[in-house]
Design goal:
- By secondary structure, chain A is an alpha/beta fold.
- Chain A folds into 3 domains: 109 residues, Glucose Oxidase, domain 1; 117 residues, PtsI, HPr-binding domain (Enzyme I, Chain A, domain 2, Orthogonal Bundle); 318 residues, TIM Barrel, CATH 3.20.20.
- Helix content of chain A is 50%, strand content 13%.
- The radius of gyration of chain A is 28 Å and the shape is globular.
- The two termini of chain A are 45 Å apart.
- By secondary structure, chain B is α+β, with helices and mostly antiparallel strands.
- Chain B has one domain: HPr-like (Histidine-containing Protein, Chain: A, 2-Layer Sandwich), CATH 3.30.1340.
- Chain B is built from 3 helices and 4 strands, in the order E-H-E-E-H-E-H.
- A 4-stranded antiparallel sheet of chain B has the order 1-4-2-3.
- The longest helix of chain B has 13 residues.
- Chain B is globular.
- The model of chain B has no long low-confidence stretch (mean pLDDT 88).
- The chains are: A alpha/beta, B alpha+beta.
- At the A-B interface, helix 2, helix 3 and helix 4 of A face helix 1 and helix 2 of B.
């Protein structure tokens, strides 16, 4: 009886939060949770020796672990208590236990995990029926042993996500950034996750990889055993477990439609982003991982407009050292070739603080010690970071960008730190680009309003409309109770954007926009009309935006802006922009 | 020629950790085959897992069977362990 045989199991449909659009259909791969629901899966005879090997390795590792635990316990709490672990050790090492489990694997073709779990269940069952309260308590020890060994068995399986052999849909309670980056991208079709929101790492990562994902599903892991078919509808935030044939058919039709429009957009890749009246717009890519630079360039980007360096600091247990960072930057620069690549300095706040930073919890993280503020208070770490960026600048057209600037002193201090590090590098005779452009994010209302002051001190501006909107409207968009107030097209935000663009133009300083607004076709006409000639977005959004650019005239975009500036309500603006987009490309809505 | 003897579990907490550890320890010193029967279950005297699965509580009767060269020494030694309540009360 194979798990998930169609029709045997009821179809379950769950609604979660949209994290990354698209449809994925495939067998579920459940990443471990504390409960270890192990699916009964039969294996091919050829895989039997490998499963026995996994079992032996897990038993050996578990035994060593318990031995350490026993010795440590004996030192701290005495031999008497340590005896508990002596028995754990003996049971794990028990030849009879191994024989039974190996028999399960060989005779029934079970996986090591399932075969071991079966035997442990049998043991536990025996104990649950005992009247003697003391012996009955021993079932806890059996649980402990089971969990330990299971962790080692699955630990192997978990590593295997880096080299899967068949396409799977990942179902998990949560995914750590390091897990996420180690996925075998070719075989992972999509994600269904218990926790998280649309701005969680899983969500960002899934969008970046172009994989459908639904998050905040609460308990999807308890509805899926593993191996059964699962549909992830990332466009609507729906997950279907054990779909019936009609549902599969419906989603397959959707997939075919998506694929067709993807092909159409791919053809746009080679075409320039030029308006009908001959104005060229530079389309750049936002990336989070060094390797992503390659696919970004493949999708038609003319450079990297925003390389978020945070993942470097989030994915490991320890803070990345200079070499770790240099390697990552170097890789991204290599993939970008001779095209520009803007590296934004570490933009972490208390909300995503890595453990190594060990910071106090700010009461109000987005207004707290984060981003550039954090770097300026931790100069050692900041200098290492800058040194790695500067070293990478020897290999391509690297630019440095500071996030979250609110006053001139911060900017000057950050710049002088760069110059200090440059001097160190010169002394050490290490190559870097002396004249690399230094720019800043304009993502606080203060920076936008003081643009005419900042403009004298930077080589470029980049409008970070996500944070600019959040700070201007005082809305946390990750907070579901107020997220409906979050609107980058709010007249206040549009006026700030306009002011920054005009200031930049007058001073002949390039203005880029790298917020999510840049990748949303509904805003393309507005942004062009406001005077932007450079947009940086997720690589997957480039074809769609390019398509719109090629359909409009700049003159038309400017009249759209004239109209928008007369509206005083964000809903009117959104409706108007939607209508204008529909005029030129009905499919885009 | 196998040797066989019945004995009652006397220690309060039954066949739990320490008794099993001591049993297996002693059993490993003998070459003969050691079987333990209790509550309609059978255990290999060398397997802590199987001994634990006997769920032998205080007052249960255990049947020991040894078979091999040193079967006599084995059964005497192991029975003495039971009689002493595994050094507990």
């Amino acid at each position: 009886m194979a798990a998930g045989a169609a029709g045997l199991w009821p179809m379950i449909q769950k609604k979660g939060t949209i994290a990354s659009p698209g449809v994925a259909i495939g067998p579920a791969l459940v990443l471990d949770t504390e409960e270890y629901r192990i699916p009964r899966r039969t294996i091919d005879a050829t895989r039997v020796p490998a499963q026995i090997h996994i079992l032996d390795d897990a038993l050996k590792a578990s035994r060593e672990e318990v031995r350490e635990l026993r010795l440590a316990t004996a030192r701290q709490l005495g031999d008497k208590i340590a005896t508990i672990f002596a028995l754990h050790e003996e049971i794990i090492a028990d030849k009879k236990l191994r024989d039974v489990v190996v028999g399960n694997i060989e005779n029934n073709r079970y996986t090591a995990a399932y075969a071991f779990g079966l035997q442990m269940n049998e043991l536990q069952r025996r104990f649950r029926n005992v009247a003697d309260p003391y012996l009955k308590e021993r079932v806890r020890d059996l649980f402990d042993i089971e969990k330990r060994v299971m962790r080692h068995i699955l630990g192997r399986a978990r590593e295997d996500i880096t080299r899967l052999t068949e396409p799977v849909v990942v179902v998990a309670h949560d995914i750590t950034p390091s897990q996420a980056v180690s996925f075998d991208q070719e075989h992972v079709l999509g994600f269904a996750i218990n926790v998280g929101g649309s701005t969680s790492h899983t969500a960002i990562l899934a969008r970046m990889l172009g994989k459908p994902a639904v998050v905040a599903l609460n308990d999807i892991t308890s509805d899926v055993a593993g191996g059964e078919p699962v549909i992830i509808d990332g466009t609507h935030g729906i997950v279907v477990v054990n779909p019936d044939p009609e549902t599969i058919e419906r989603y397959q039709a959707q997939q075919a439609k998506d694929r067709a429009s993807e092909i159409e957009l791919r053809e746009l890749r080679e075409l320039p982003a030029v308006t009908q009246d001959g104005h060229t717009i530079t389309l750049l890519a936002n990336i989070e991982l060094s390797n992503e630079a390659r696919s970004a360039m493949d999708s038609g980007a003319e450079g990297i407009g925003l390389y978020r360096t945070e993942f470097l600091f989030l994915s490991g247990e320890r803070a990345p050292n200079e070499e770790d960072q240099y390697e990552a930057f170097r890789t991204a620069v290599r993939h970008t070739g001779t095209k520009p690549i803007t590296i934004r300095t570490m933009d972490l706040g208390a909300d995503k603080m890595m453990s190594a930073m060990g910071a106090h919890h700010d009461h109000n993280p987005v207004l707290g010690l984060r981003s550039l503020r954090y770097c300026l208070k931790n100069l050692g770490m900041f200098r290492t970071h800058l040194r790695a960026i500067l070293r990478a600048s020897a290999h391509g057209d690297v630019r440095i960008m500071f996030p979250m600037v609110t006053n001139l002193m911060e900017l000057r201090q950050a710049k002088s730190t760069v110059f200090d590090v440059m001097e160190d590098l010169e002394e050490d005779e290490i190559a870097f680009r002396r004249d690399l452009p230094i720019g800043m994010m304009v993502e606080t209302p203060a920076a936008a309003m003081l643009a005419s002051i900042f403009v004298k001190e930077v080589a470029f501006f980049s409008l970070g409309t996500n944070d600019l909107t959040q700070y201007t409207l005082a809305v946390d968009r990750a907070n579901e109770r107020v997220s409906d107030l979050y609107a980058p097209h709010n007249p206040a935000v549009i006026r700030l954007i306009r002011q920054v663009i005009r200031t930049g133009r007058r001073a002949d300083v390039t203005v880029n926009l790298c917020g999510e607004m840049a990748g949303a076709p509904i805003y393309t006409m507005l942004l062009l009309g406001l005077g932007l000639r450079q947009l940086s977005m997720a690589p997957k959004d480039i074809p769609e935006v390019k398509k719109i650019i090629r359909l409009v005239t700049l003159r038309k975009c400017e009249t759209v802006v004239q109209k928008v500036l007369r509206f005083d309500d964000d809903r009117q603006i959104l409706n108007y922009l939607r209508d204008r987009l529909r005029d030129i490309d009905p499919d885009a809505i | 020629m196998a040797v066989e003897r019945e004995i009652v579990i006397r220690n309060k907490e039954g066949l739990h950790f320490r008794p099993i550890m001591r049993f297996v320890d002693l059993a490993s010193k003998f070459d003969c085959r050691i079987q333990v029967f209790c509550n309609e279950h059978e255990a290999d005297g060398h397997s802590p897992m199987e001994l634990l699965m006997l769920v032998g509580t205080q007052g249960s009767t255990v049947r020991l069977v040894t078979d091999g060269k040193d079967e006599q020494e084995a059964i005497v030694g192991l029975c003495r362990l039971f009689e002493s309540g595994f050094g507990e009360t």
